[in-house]
Design a protein that fits this description.
6 helices, about 50% helix, two-stranded antiparallel sheet, mainly alpha
């Protein structure tokens, strides 16, 4: 699965692109930090088994704050967030939510799956797959697979009671901790290593440029 380092690097790329003129060191660190916080449910899962990739890897983590931001910015007569932090606050908040959604929740959903609608609906969805064009089958996607009109088992996995994602903190449910190797991945594939280098490199360059301008 993508490591926290990979998630943070991805969020850094999104932050640099989305913050625009509101970019500064504090803003980008907040965007990257929010993406990192989602992996705290790794530790929650030790106390409440099964909640890793559920407690903080669901759509409500983004939908609820996004609804609050829309209400504050578009419906209220006077925005509390804008009154205190101006346009800067709104831009950083939206960029942070984008980082959480794309760099973490959906990134993991398309990589071994997450419990997208927990706790309202306890079911892990694995959207791993591919999108391709062939000369015989045309456009083919395997992200969401159907069996007789219903989601296939390859897409719909188990629940928090019977699904476990191994981590360095919680390597296995049924084996003694001393019997398994604790692995804390940084970049498990070459593609993710490139993403890490590109993400942190881009953020570093942008911070240097921002400070030179100041």
């Amino acid at each position: 699965m993508p490591s926290t380092v990979v998630h943070v690097a991805f969020a850094g790329l999104l932050g640099v692109a989305l913050l625009g003129d509101e970019f500064d060191t504090r803003a980008i660190l907040l965007v990257m930090g929010c993406a990192a916080l989602m992996d705290l449910d790794t530790l929650i899962g030790i106390v409440v088994p099964g909640t890793h990739r559920a407690a903080l890897h669901n759509v409500w983590i983004v939908v609820v704050p996004a609804a609050a931001l829309l209400w504050d910015g578009a419906i209220r007569e006077e925005s509390v967030l804008r009154a205190r932090w101006g346009t800067y606050g709104h831009r950083v908040a939206w960029a942070s939510l984008a980082g959480v959604l794309f760099a973490h929740v959906l990134f993991d959903a398309f990589f071994n799956g997450v419990n997208l609608f927990w706790p309202l609906h306890d079911r892990f969805y694995d959207l791993s797959g591919s999108l391709l064009v062939t000369d015989q089958r045309g456009l083919v996607q395997t992200f969401v697979e159907l069996d007789a009109g219903t989601l296939a088992e390859s897409t719909v996995r188990g629940t928090t009671e019977n699904t476990h994602y191994r981590t360095g903190f919680d390597p296995a449910r049924d084996e003694p901790a001393t019997a398994v190797e604790r692995i804390f991945p940084i970049a498990a594939t070459g593609e993710r290593f490139v993403l890490v280098v590109a993400g942190f490199g881009t953020v570093l360059v942008r911070i240097v440029e921002d400070r030179r301008t100041d």
